[in-house]
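Q: Fold this one first, please.
A: Sequence and structure below.
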Amino acid sequence: MTVPSSQKTARKGRPAFNRAADAIARRSIWVCGWVAIAVLVAIFVFLAWNATQALRDVGLWKMLSGTDWYPTIEPARYGFLPSIVGSLWVTGIALLLAVPIGIAGSIYLSEFATGWVKEVTKSVVEFMVAVPSVVLGLLGLAYLAPLLATTFHVSSGLMALTAGLVVGIMSLPTIISISEDALHSVPKDLRQGSLALGNTRWQTIYKVVVPSASSGIFAAVMLGLGRAIGETMVVLMLAGNSGLIISSPLEAARTLTGTIAQEMGEVVSGGEHYSVLFTMGLVLFVITFLINLAADMVLERQRKRWRR
């Protein structure tokens, strides 16, 4: 039977069309990747450029080790330690809440939940990511702060503990989702081999599954840490914004993000105080970048481990 000339042309043209489409897709992905890197570098350059005046006139070490934050007196004092300590308190409390609950939730989703229960639970966890932080801040302001003030007999519920608990709730979806993916990626052969050796299901989970996914769980905790330390709105609403170095979670605190958000709109553009706030932003940028970089390196290590 003779094949029509139009069909011959289509058969010859389709591979060429597919190759062209693949080349365009590869080039587009390449361009998008470099654009993302360029944006990241541009943010760093922008922060460093605006921080130059403070780095030259005040000095980075003097700002990092300074214990007083009085930007409006003469001479001004730009100590970052009160904000750094406040950030550590809020982030530590958030991780104390989010890590055990997040890992337990991911184990339940990966190993025990089935059917519609699993689908609904995962949907709820993913929906939590989309809840605006200001909404959680309002809920904390209306219910959690008065409750904690009454419980601990303090004059105000606006303190590091309140902010840390709400930030911990905000970090939960990140830890649950990534940990669940890490647990789910553990090969079934390991589970079946453990069960065949006589281990119970619980023994298989904590002796085989969780250790095998430990690097992914660690990455989830690191990303949750990055989420907690970078949160702004909740700490601005609930931490109390005290400029002192605190020694208890029941004291009002100020964080790096809260200081920048609170004062950036009130300073003279181009002045020393303005440049100091950009230096604070640069420090925060470097911290969160290193945390996310460490988490990505651990995740890549796990992917290579299971590709062997």
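Q: Good. Now the second chain.
A: Here it is, same layout.
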Amino acid sequence: MWKNVHVVELVVFAVLFVAVSAMGFVAARWRRPATMEHLDEWGLGGRNFGSWITWFLIGGDLYTAYTFVAVPALVFGAGALGFYAVPYTIILYPIFFLILIRLWSVSHKHRLVTPADFVRVRFGSPTLALLVAITGIVATMPYIALQLVGIEAVLKTIGLTGDSTVARHLPIIIAFAILAAYTYQSGLRAPALIAFVKDSLIYVVILAAIIILPTKLGGWDGIFSAADAKFQASANPADGVLLNANNQLQYISLALGSALALFLYPHSVTGVLASKNRNVIKRNMSALPAYSLLLGLLALLGFAAIAAKVTPLPGTKAPDTNTVVPLLFQGQFPAWFAGVAFAAIGIGALVPAAIMSIAAANLFTRNIYREYLNKEATPAQEAKVSKITSLVVKVGALLCIILLDPQFSIDLQLIGGVIILQTLPSVAIGLFTRWFHKGALIAGWVAGMAFGMWMLYNVSNATRDHFAGSNFPLSKLGFDTKMTIYAGLVAVVANLVVAALGTVLLRAFKVADGTDGTARPDYFVDEDEPQGAATPTEAAVA
């Protein structure tokens, strides 16, 4: 069924993958609670993770297998534009240093599990909470599918691919069946435990690559010269080793929009709410930029692949550039080390995929099942529904990979970023002000979503007329320019304008608003303040 399999790489990959999967099953006994039949335990790991666990968990959640293969692939194809991921992962931490601490406190106080839970309490609107929940689930599904794209790139490079559907997808179906099984059993403890191994492998692989590759490819001067020569010969006006007038606005808007979107994803919030206290979050928002250094080094592998004259494996309609990093390791390192690198990518897919499926399942359970289907649900029933929903979510992501063009799955993730940004006013801004009217926030969400979808519909490329990415050409708005802009940022501005104008109008007509179930002190509560306490101490506030 499979031909030309690289046996040594496959054996190393399989051994590490199986070992880590075993850790996933054992994780149910790690920091063992009295019962796993509660969302606080299954879905949030007991809300008791310290600084180190949280650092690995959030790092493993945000820096995914897809990041490992896609960022260098973008640098390989477009040059400097691919480095947008580096500044956005730097500027987001100061922004979210303030936001996530408040979210943790109010969630601790009111026993909230999801961002939609917060919106429900803050604005007293089940409808707005439902929109936030659906948005989170829809945006997360293609994100999970992208983790499969990362594993698939590795499996293709190893040789586990073929012309038939079974040959192409059987290994990835097996991998995700294992992932689904241990996530069902161990909940958030599984990715938290595995993240230690995943990140250790990635640090070792990247540091080795950055040290060894220049010695084989003529030094960094030779690597950059090879990349510059490639882009000088390209007819694409938007590529190059430096930014130019055509892609600078796209770079800036994409970096800012991606930074704002990243912690609105429900899986990012899940990692934060699993933290023990406010200081854990403060330490992590200060230390997580270490991953950005790793990301910058990782992006350079795209230029190294150009210097190494890597040719991507064939894709469905075009060369699959996601294979350039696996091919780079396969061509420049011994087979056993390439197997380690492939395992790092594969395991790097398991951690975020597990957290994302748990986060999506929690949204369904808390904000759809409990709100509309079973208002008297017990904690055990909630945990059961979440476990089953996490399986359904994984199956949906798997079907995306099997049934859709992989490139369209990647574009769907970019669309997901545009979608999740529309929850910014109600979730992120809602943590600081209750000025917006709940009806205006709903109207803003509708306007932002509609405008965003219109812009995405008008994004095309050589192989697709619509929904071909998130870089919206400003010429579509009547501007005489070749510049593009990140659609999500424009859409959320439209969202905010409608929400602000709507709030003024609804207040002028004295339309009834929802009840705010929170109080200002709730946003400063720490672990030593009992949940349900009236007011934290002044010391805690300080």
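Q: Anything worth noting on the second one?
A: DSSP finds 22 helices and four strands in the chain.
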